[in-house]
Design brief:
The protein has one domain (8-186, 218-240): 3-Layer(aba) Sandwich (Rossmann fold). It has eight helices and eight strands, in the order E-H-E-H-E-H-E-H-E-H-E-H-H-H-E-E. The protein has helices spanning 17-28, 40-52, 67-77, 104-126, 152-173, 190-196, 200-210, 219-231; strands at 8-11, 32-37, 56-61, 85-88, 133-138, 177-184, 241-245, 249-252. An eight-stranded mixed sheet has the order 3-2-1-4-5-6-7-8, sandwiched between helices.
């Protein structure tokens, strides 16, 4: 499949998990992929996995909690040709547990990594999309359709991502840019490993307690939906947020 041939795709948080899976799938569809994250070793490993499979990719280090890094990432990515697709996937779970255990620094980190990074991506990516394009931001089922009391800061940030996408869609429509939000259920990522201890039984139990399917969603399922947002016809309404479960099963967030 070469639906994205001749197009440039930037993926933040692409050194592991959902971001890495999206980078690989976009490259398999023919896109020239800019893999970005904080860990250079993991980033170069993802690039190697793409190029070994015949795809095109390069790594650009960036810390998306820093607006200047996001601006530079967009500038470097667009140095050859305009950006066509931008995926803001980077994120952290932040403080988990009772409110008295939260620190101000931890609250700032979860907001900066999950929400400020998306706002910076919208601003800087759109300025380098001279031929239109698509921006896809990562949110979650947490804070959107299901309260998770132990993850209040994370929920607040992810709800903000959905609101940002809905509000940015009409603003960017004049530039021919569509904006979508991915809201995965329980995905088999390092984040879920940290939350559950990483055991297969623990992860399966966590998914059974939250996801409608009762199953852990592979990162490849989320990546398939993410890349389909770029190519499916007729295209979904800009501003739409979609819940992604194992299968993949896609449900519009209303």
């Amino acid at each position: 499949m070469n639906e994205l041939s001749g197009r440039t795709a930037v993926v933040t948080g692409a050194t592991s998990g959902i971001g890495a899976a999206i980078a690989r799938r976009a490259a398999a569809a023919g896109a020239d992929v800019v893999v970005s994250g904080r860990n250079a070793d993991r980033g170069h490993a993802v690039v190697t996995s793409i190029t070994d499979a015949g795809g095109s990719a390069r790594f650009v280090v960036a810390d998306v909690t820093r607006d200047a890094d996001v601006a530079e990432l967009a500038r470097v990515a667009a140095s050859i040709r305009p950006i066509d697709f931008w995926f803001s996937i980077a994120g952290v779970e932040g403080p988990i547990g009772p409110m008295e255990t939260w620190s101000v620094d931890a609250l700032r980190e979860v907001i900066d990594a999950n929400l400020l990074s998306v706002l910076s991506g919208l601003r800087h990516a759109s300025s380098h999309m001279s031929r239109g394009g698509v921006i896809v931001n990562a949110a979650s089922f947490v804070g959107t359709v299901l309260p998770v009391p132990i993850a209040v800061p994370y929920a607040a940030a992810k709800a903000g991502v959905v609101a940002a996408g809905r509000s940015a869609a009409p603003l960017l429509a004049e530039q021919g840019i569509d904006v979508y939000t991915l809201c995965p259920w329980v995905v088999d990522t390092p984040m879920v490993d940290r939350l559950t201890g990483g055991g297969s039984d623990e992860k399966a139990g966590f998914a059974a307690g939250f996801a409608p399917s009762g199953r852990l969603t592979p990162v490849e399922d989320v990546a398939r939906v993410a890349v389909d947002l770029l190519t499916e016809q007729p295209r979904r309404a800009s501003g739409e947020a979609v819940l992604v479960d194992a299968g993949p099963t896609v449900t519009v967030l209303t």
